[in-house]
Design brief:
- Helix content is 10%, strand content 42%.
- It has 433 residues and is mostly beta strands.
- The chain has 2 domains: 15-159, 3-Layer(aba) Sandwich (Rossmann fold); 167-428, TolB, C-terminal domain (Neuraminidase, 6 Propeller), CATH 2.120.10.
- The strands form 7 sheets. Strands 1, 2, 3, 4, 5, 6 and 7 form a 7-stranded mixed β-sheet that branches. It has a 4-stranded antiparallel β-sheet with strand order 10-9-8-31, with no helix packed on it.
- A hairpin with a 5-residue loop joins β17 (270-277) and β18 (283-285).
Length: 433
């Protein structure tokens, strides 16, 4: 288990987008993400006209929207007959008849080199307004990214919040029996597609974290001889060790600007938090308490670190400035708090909480107020934030191995990840460039 280890261990794709202009009409259909939708918005996503990959684009867009919990893509079997011309205003009465509130139309074409051009329009069926009109272009190999970008455009227009679909997740892929578990570093699209291994399984991988540039990963490699923290370039596969410490090294985390990595290291029986300048490879010790200090996570502005420590007798959440000053505790509820991680927008901290035999993924503000528990299970741990700070991915183990799950910040949309194999320690990337 990630928390047990922490406490005991003492091909970037080219894709261009142009926006030919949005309709000046204001959206009459709005999804309120702050309160959580009582009913997901019915939206029709017909297969785009043209070819190639028209049907595949429709399937990925609809799946993205459905998985958010905020939208309900309607059954294509109920759609009006005939193709939907993206350049022609729809016959809205036909779509009202199936209770569609939103309608997405589009077409796709490919040039002689196979490069795709995708045009889309989002319509408010009852107001008869165009809400989104955009054109996307990409290489043929990046058609899934086009679909995710279309879903992001819909999400942003109807919720007022940035989307999160065009992103990836790095994680520890788990296989084999519990006593001989193989943990390989892996990466996939946020919807579980295109999974691939980044390490060979000759050592166990824990605590991956993705840099803001989405190109680099830092992680802990655990071997019988000890642990090492590595930096790995996703595109090239090149990796290098992050310094050498005599004891265990674990729980690395990039700063927002990618210039630093904070991590925990055990030295002379004491586990403290360090920060390393990646340009100079010089490390600064930030904590000196006799307790176990671990799981550092930078604030959005890079000025503070949240971490957990058992200096008070049990694991709790603390804040400090990135120079190690102004250390103060912010968790005061019952139970044990571990794996805190700051949201990308800087407003909330997610964490793992254990109370008795139950584990929870929870949220609190950076001053420790407004604590809320989003999940309740035999073992939930290791939260990571979607780039829009609205969805959290975590690992859930019901006694038969860990798998990835997601929950939104309202706690109303809890679901297993589309990636169904064994996995833990997810780390969500920022939106891809």
């Amino acid at each position: 288990m990630r928390s047990v280890i922490m406490m005991l261990a003492v091909a970037v794709f080219g894709l261009a987008m142009v926006a030919p202009g949005l309709s000046p009409a204001m959206a009459d259909i709005v999804v309120n993400v702050d309160q959580g939708a009582t009913q997901p918005l019915p939206i029709a996503v017909p297969v785009f006209s043209g070819r190639p990959v028209a049907a595949q684009l429709q399937q990925v867009i609809a799946a993205d929207l459905a998985r958010s919990g905020l939208f309900r893509p309607l059954d294509p079997a109920t759609f009006p007959a005939g193709p939907q011309d993206v350049n022609v205003k729809p016959a809205f009465d036909a779509w009202k008849a199936i209770s569609a509130q939103g309608l997405l139309t589009g077409d796709v074409s490919a040039d002689a080199d196979g490069r795709l051009t995708v045009n889309v329009r989002l319509w408010d069926v009852y107001a008869g307004d165009q809400l989104v009109g955009q054109q996307f272009s990409s290489g043929s190999e990046s058609w899934r990214r086009v679909a995710h970008k279309v879903a992001d455009a819909i999400y942003e227009k109807l919720t007022g919040e940035p989307g999160y679909f065009d992103s990836r997740v790095v994680f520890a892929a788990e296989s084999g029996p519990r006593g001989r578990r193989i943990r390989r570093l892996a990466i996939m699209d946020q919807d579980g597609a295109n999974p691939r291994y980044l390490t060979d399984g000759s050592y166990s991988v824990f605590f991956p974290h993705v840099s803001a540039n989405t190109r680099d990963v830092t992680y802990m490699a655990l071997r019988p001889t000890g642990s090492t923290i590595y930096l790995l370039n996703i595109a090239t596969g090149r990796q290098e060790a992050l310094g050498h410490f005599p004891g265990m090294m674990f729980a690395p985390s990039f700063s927002p600007n990618g210039a630093w990595v904070a991590f925990s290291a055990e030295k002379d029986g004491n586990t403290d938090i360090y920060a390393m300048n990646l340009a100079t490879r010089s490390a600064t010790r930030l904590t000196t308490d006799p307790g176990i200090d671990t799981s550092p996570s930078f604030s959005r502005d890079g000025a503070q670190l949240v971490f957990n420590s058992d200096r008070g007798g049990s694991p709790q959440i603390y804040l400090m400035n990135t120079d190690g000053s102004n250390v103060h505790r912010i968790s005061f509820g019952s139970g044990r708090y571990t794996t805190p991680v700051w949201s990308p927008d800087g407003k909330l901290i997610a964490f793992t909480k254990q109370e008795g035999s139950a584990f929870h993924i929870g949220l609190m503000k950076s001053d420790g107020s407004n604590e809320r528990l989003l999940t309740d299970s035999y073992l939930d741990e290791g939260p990571t934030w979607a780039p829009n700070s609205r969805v959290i991915m975590f690992a859930r183990d019901t006694g038969y191995g860990a798998h990835l799950w997601t929950v939104d910040v309202s706690g109303k949309f809890l679901a297993p990840s589309a990636y169904t194999l064994g996995a833990s320690d997810p780390a969500w990337s920022a939106l891809l460039p």
